[in-house]
Amino acid sequence: MKHIIGIRHEDKYVMERRVALVPRHINQLAKQGIRFEVQKSAKRIFKDSEFEQAGAKLNDKIQEADVIFGVKEMPTDFFESGKTYIFFSHVIKGQAYNMPMLKAMMKKKCQLIDYEKITNEEGRRLIFFGRFAGLAGMINSLWSFGQRLKIQGIDTPFSKIKQSHLYNSLDEAMQAVSECGLSIAQKGLPEGVGPVVIGFTGYGNVSKGAQEIANLLPSIEISPEQLLAMDLEKVSKSIVYKLVFKEKHISEPLDTNQVFELSHYYKHPEAYKNSFEKFVPKLSILMNCMYWDTKYPRIVTKDFLEELYASGEPKLKVIGDVTCDPDGSIECTHKGTEIENPVFVYNPKTRAYKMGFEGDGVLVMAVDILPSELPRESSEAFSDALLPFVKAVAETDFGVDFDQLTLPAPLKKALILHQGELTPDYVYLKKFVE
User: Fold this and answer.
1) Per-residue pLDDT band at 1 (split at 50, 70, 90)
2) By C-alpha distance, which of 122, 67, 82, 120 is closest to 390?
3) b/e per residue, 247-274, with b = 16+ CB within 10 A?
4) Local confidence band at 401 (pLDDT 50, 70, 90 cut-offs)
5) Rounded Cα distance, 22 and 330, in Å
6) How far is C-alpha 35 from the chain's CA centre?
7) Of 52, 96, 233, 396, which residue is most buried, by most CB within 10 angstroms?
8) What is the structure's pLDDT at 45?
């Protein structure tokens, strides 16, 4: 049995241009006898003609395919009875805004495989855009930093950096950041700006991608402990200082007699409180790159920001919230932003938001689809990771009982719905659906 594989046109965001499988991989799989139906798209980074030349059938709507690959969430009226859908569903935390979509899939007896849950035996994700979210997030945050200072009447080399999607390639964007770094190394920064200190929460693929861009600047890495001990008035203004925050820097035990222990933290997050805010006043840019959900303490609260701004504008100019959880670890991130309208200023005193670079408060860059600002490179890398699994999906009989499915283990672990029913690892979602 071989299913016809469908590739969906992305429509959740105006500037979403990614695709899960690129033409060269479709060509490889087509030569192995797998049939593809690709929904036409005028904005996708790869042209319709490229898919056609790769051996796919082009249609305005997906009509024949019964296994459909996408990237972002799909509309509730898109699903068809008994079909299999593979995409980032954003339902595993019980996200309320996606429960209607999950209900629709259950009603139609669909299969749902979520990329986010495709992991190896150690629980590490195998298919992800994370590095590209970090790359684009850091480029955008440096751009935001330059534009925010420019609005305040301070011109810096950062003002020459553009938003990620305005570059023709990642290489071109990286060259621009390198040129900014060379200028800083040769001429320093204007009075009152330096030294620039960039803090990264998390140490996974997202954080590594963001650090990759920051490393193009004349930077040195310090520890969080060193930052607290530093007198920023007495250090070089021609160097960017970067540091990575781990869990032990972000939270501390409520019991002052207890030593931070990572395994205990993950098992009992309720026994911990925020300890991150002591670092924030010394940061110029905060890159939030870590996983978070509601059981963990927030790292920057609205109350803290109000207190920080009570004595005037602090050193902190930009929060690059790559994690982008609305009202989440960065409490003032009230929503994910669009590529075409990527930043807002949050006023801690009035607790009001204003889109753009102007206004009193801290600037937040929280683009929800950062990898789509580097659509070609991110799609290529994602497709590279997905390729080994496609043939198995195409040959799986989803009509058998869950226990009899022949899916590879990483895919079976990521199967949230089978014939419209929550699979054993995801029955906890029932309370959210109801």
Assistant:
1) low
2) 67
3) bebbbbbeeeeeebeeeebeeeeeebeb
4) very high
5) 35
6) 31
7) 396
8) 96
Domains for the chain: give ranges and CATH numbers.
5-128+375-433 (3.40.50.720), 130-373 (3.40.50.720)
Sequence letter at residue 368: D
Structure tokens at 120: 């190896």
d(CA 333, CA 365): 9
Sign of dihedral through CA atoms 56, 57, 61, 62? Answer: negative
pLDDT at 309: 94
